[in-house]
Amino acid sequence: MDGYYGNYALVAALLLIGVIIVAGALTANRLLRPSRPTPEKLTTYECGVDPVGDGWAQSQIRYYVFTYLYVVFAVDAVFLFPWATVFAAPGYGMTTLVEMFVFLGFIALGILYAWRKKVLTWT
């Protein structure tokens, strides 16, 4: 397995071996486990408390908005680290600087929009 395509073959072989190991472990688990379902075992488990009601609960939208904002900042951080390493390379200074300011401008517009809509206030 030498050469350019040999590396891909090695990765594919390792991926196939990993899939076979996981599938084998799950199959062995299913074959070896005891299976005695009872109505009590099939009820919904809620931290040791008997379930009450129909299971429908509404959540406030602000939780999803905070999660979305976290994802935006996580993507921002993931983009900033490679940018910081490329910025020092010769010939990429001004181009990467402009790219980063455009990207940070979009992030700032999103934060400004969320702030103006009073999404960031916690009540």
TrEMBL record:
Topology in membrane: Multi-pass membrane protein
Swiss-Prot/TrEMBL keywords: Membrane, NAD, Quinone, Transmembrane, Transmembrane helix, Transport
UniProt cross-references to InterPro entries, sorted A to Z: NADH_UbQ/plastoQ_OxRdtase_su3, NDAH_ubi_oxred_su3_sf
Reaction catalysed by this enzyme: a quinone + NADH + 5 H(+)(in) = a quinol + NAD(+) + 4 H(+)(out)
Record localization: Cell membrane; Membrane
Top EC group: translocase
EC code: 7.1.1.-
Gene3D superfamilies xref list: NADH:ubiquinone/plastoquinone oxidoreductase, chain 3 (1.20.58.1610)
TM region(s), chain numbering: 6-26, 63-84, 96-115
Annotated coiled-coil segments of the chain: none
Database matches in Pfam families: Oxidored_q4
Main location: membrane
Entry annotated with the keyword Cell division: no
Record carries keyword Transport: yes
Family the entry assigns: Belongs to the complex I subunit 3 family.
Protein function: NDH-1 shuttles electrons from NADH, via FMN and iron-sulfur (Fe-S) centers, to quinones in the respiratory chain.
Name of the molecule in the record: NADH-quinone oxidoreductase subunit
